[in-house]
């Protein structure tokens, strides 16, 4: 692993089931994450993904690349364009810094209407890891 290394992109199909399941799993029962009519009444064209689901998908992206022994120390994200059902989010990443066994990876996720997520993930790898 070197500063500047690009992680391969990960395409995630945004389904209604993914949005609702993520909201339920994170105990986020706000209607905009599961009720299309109430979401429309509040100005959204449909339900949309919550930040906790996005946070989990960013973590998955990192551990898919660095392996199950990678330890996520900090995930700092900011949301932009919402993820709606029927779209695809593409996550990309770049190693920004390395200090011993600790790395900082900048992650972005784009969908059909713009940038959904921007952030950094700080992780550590166990001694002898080859990622």
Structure description:
The protein has 131 residues and is an alpha+beta fold. The protein is 24% helix and 40% strand. The protein contains three helices and five strands. It has helices spanning 16-25, 36-41, 51-66; strands spanning 6-14, 71-79, 87-99, 102-111, 114-124. Strands 1-3-4-5-2 form a five-stranded antiparallel β-sheet. β4 (102-111) and β5 (114-124) form a beta hairpin. The termini are close together.
Task: Supply database-style keywords.
131 residues, alpha+beta, five-stranded antiparallel β-sheet, 3 helices, 5 strands, 24% helix, 40% strand, elongated
Q: State the low-pLDDT regions, or none.
A: none
Order of helices and strands: EHHHEEEE
Read across the widest sheet, the strand sequence of neighbours is: 1-3-4-5-2
Q: Please state the overall shape, judged from the principal axes of the Cα atoms.
A: elongated
């Amino acid at each position: 692993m070197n500063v500047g290394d690009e992680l391969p992109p990960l395409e995630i199909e945004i389904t209604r089931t993914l949005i609702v399941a993520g909201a339920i799993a994170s105990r986020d029962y706000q209607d905009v994450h599961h009720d299309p009519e109430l979401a429309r009444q509040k100005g959204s064209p449909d339900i949309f993904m919550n930040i906790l689901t996005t946070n989990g998908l960013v973590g998955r992206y990192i551990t898919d690349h660095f392996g199950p022994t990678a330890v996520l120390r900090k995930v700092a994200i900011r949301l932009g364009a919402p993820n709606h059902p029927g779209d695809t989010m593409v996550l990309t990443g770049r190693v920004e810094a390395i200090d011993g066994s600790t790395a900082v990876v900048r992650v972005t996720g784009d969908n059909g209407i713009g940038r959904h997520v921007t952030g950094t993930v700080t992780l550590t790898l166990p001694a002898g890891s080859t990622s």
